[in-house]
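Hey, can you fold this one?
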Amino acid sequence: MSDSSLSQRSSLESLRSLSPPDALPPSVEGRMVWQGNELEPNQYITNLERADIEAVRAAVLFFKLLSLPRGSISKDTFPLSPDLARRLSAISDEIHHGRGVAVVRGLDSAVLNDEESVIAFAGLASYVCPERATDSYANQTLSHIRDATHDVVPDWARDLGLAGSKLPSAMEFHADRFSGDVLAMYVRNDGSEMAGGEQFVASFCRIYNELLRDAQGVLDTLAAGNWPFELKHPERKLPYLDLGPALFFAEGRPICQLVKAPLLGSPKIPRSNTMPSLSIEQLHALRVVEDLAQRYCTKLDRRNGDIQFMNNLSIMHARSAYGGKPAQRRSTRHLLRMFLRDPRNAWTKPSSYLHNFNNPFEKGREQNLPILDTDPWRKISGRESHG
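Sure. Predicted structure:
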């Protein structure tokens, strides 16, 4: 991006209001408002039957015989039975209009190798949300979430550090900013029960309702357009500042895009000293939202082979640290991650930030779905965050 392009972007940002909306939308009602044990595993888990597993294995073989790049995986190139296709499509309705969390369970019994796992993940996900996001900075569609701290660091990557997705550190509650409508993760290896890495989810709609009742000032702070996000530039070493809100509204619906790493830095990628600090009000808002998320969250029921789907606009997620005792070798915990969109159910986005929400789904962008994570330093994380 040239100096003039950056200047134009800065001018565009200055046109966006730095103030919250005059009136906050009313409280959210319906099934997307829940807390703690109100979200039970039997409410969000879809179990694959033996016939389903056989259909998945057949679809994997069908795609492999086509000799197409993995970016071509779709409902057309990964054919499933009408019944399984219908059940997977119904998951999109639950993600967008229900509780916002869903899990497809049982894929571990298919005994898939690394290549087949990527194909099956993308193939099954295409029936839930047919569009896949590709990060325009890292040019990556599928990423591997694992502990890369024991990898041998090449000379060219010694000053890059590792993103949060490559570290065994705990991550506080967040929603990935401008990454996609739906977060999908395939549990290739959960790392064993004793190794940590538990996952937690919280309804932001529940948090919003409480803040609307008791702390509207926090919502005003979240919705103000002066949050100083640190973004990376593909051709420059130094990052640049992007001012914007962490809370959006469209059709009266709150949309949370609060991710902390580009605001506070992360364990291996400290925030640049060229970036402005958060205000007292912003730091207070972060603490309040984190406290409420911890209060109203539930632990996600997880097993090997699970494919997890979460509404990235209404669900905040977090994880505990993993890897066991320091003396142990690296953790085997390994998840595959994609961000998705279903045009049939996609939420309306605020018009002034529509480009930001749509950018990951730009047509014609090459899709990279790597089988192995041979380059955990691959532009680290994408433009919008350190994670």
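Confidence is low (pLDDT under 50) at residues 1-17. Let me know if you want another pass with a different chain boundary.
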